[in-house]
UniProtKB/TrEMBL annotation:
Gene3D superfamilies: 3.30.470.10, D-amino Acid Aminotransferase, subunit A, domain 2. One of its GO terms (molecular function) is lyase activity. InterPro entries: Aminotrans_IV, Aminotransferase-like, BCAT-like_C, BCAT-like_N, Class-IV_PLP-Dep_Aminotrnsfr. Transmembrane segments: none annotated. Keywords: Lyase. This is 4-amino-4-deoxychorismate lyase. The keyword Transmembrane helix does not apply. Belongs to the class-IV pyridoxal-phosphate-dependent aminotransferase family.
Length: 284
């Protein structure tokens, strides 16, 4: 099941060709995207995703996205999706054809949630720590690296996930050259100790997490403490639990890191239930 719509809200045939062969999103990954979870016909954090789409577009010197058009495009896909079925709504925005008239490419596509993702939400994941090859201060010193932009250039992220899976793990937690914790290829790292949630600041070159932000809002309303501050690899082992947060994954427990089970597994399972409740409460 797939649903596709153009920026004008017109539904398109998802089996028919859409992109030109010389589209720069295909040739060079020159574009940005967002993935929005839709539950019961309601997109979660759509405005936050559109905010991030605009930030990423600005970092790539793309024209500012037309929010009204993107909302219309998203709504067309949502309304055409089967009632009661979860959906991953992808918003894709590229620079367009290499030698075209300067017009960009933009569309929204609805996709089902995979069974593996649904299973991992419940069972948790194993992860490897992998070095990403830069220090946190590079985000400010080298803006051309596009650290913190959700660009279509995901080849490194996908290669990291394939490496993890080839070595018996489900996921990756990137660390910087100085040993600080960054993020997952498609997720935000959240560490829990007692009633405090911590995550790495965007200034370290990580993508600001929309699901992480919603989780932190829910936790703060419930009396928890939240901190956005640098994390070290040792924090992952000393925590009561480690989670990966993303739109489609929601809040998923990391049960094994670098081949070793994380300590306090019962505490981690308990916290996963609590954190899922805090996150879901944002949408009741």
């Amino acid at each position: 099941m797939r649903v596709l719509a153009g920026l004008d809200g017109t539904l398109l045939d998802p089996e028919a060709p859409l992109l030109r062969a010389d589209d720069l999103g295909v040739l060079r990954g020159d574009g940005v995207f967002e993935t929005v979870l839709v539950v019961d016909g309601r997109p979660r954090e759509l405005e936050a995703h559109l905010d991030r789409l605009a930030r990423s577009a600005a970092m790539l010197d793309l024209p500012e996205p037309d929010r009204v058009a993107w909302r219309r495009c998203a709504r067309a896909v949502i309304d055409a999706w089967p009632v009661g079925e979860e959906m991953a709504l992808k918003l894709v925005y590229t620079r367009g054809p290499e030698f075209g008239d300067g017009s960009t490419t933009a569309y929204a596509m609805g996709l089902p949630i995979s069974e593996s993702t649904r299973r991992q939400r419940v069972e948790g994941v194993s992860a490897l720590t992998l070095e990403r090859g830069f220090a946190p201060e590079h985000a400010e010193r080298a803006p051309w690296l596009l650290l913190g932009a959700k660009s279509l250039s995901y080849a490194v992220n996908m290669a990291a996930l394939r490496h993890a899976q080839a070595n018996g793990a489900d996921e990756v937690i990137f660390v910087a050259a100085d040993g600080s914790v960054l993020e997952g290829p498609t997720s935000t790292v959240v560490v829990v100790r007692e009633r405090t949630l911590r995550t790495t600041p965007p200034s370290s070159g990580v993508l600001p997490g929309t699901t992480q932000a919603a989780l932190f809002r829910g936790a703060e309303r419930a009396g928890w403490t939240t901190k956005v501050e640098p994390l070290r690899a040792a924090d992952l082992w000393e925590a009561d639990a480690v989670f990966l947060a993303s739109s489609v994954r929601r809040v998923t427990r990391v049960h094994t890191l670098d081949g070793e089970a994380l300590p306090r597994p019962e505490r981690a399972r308990e916290l996963q239930a609590v954190l899922n409740d805090l996150y879901e409460a944002e949408y009741l």
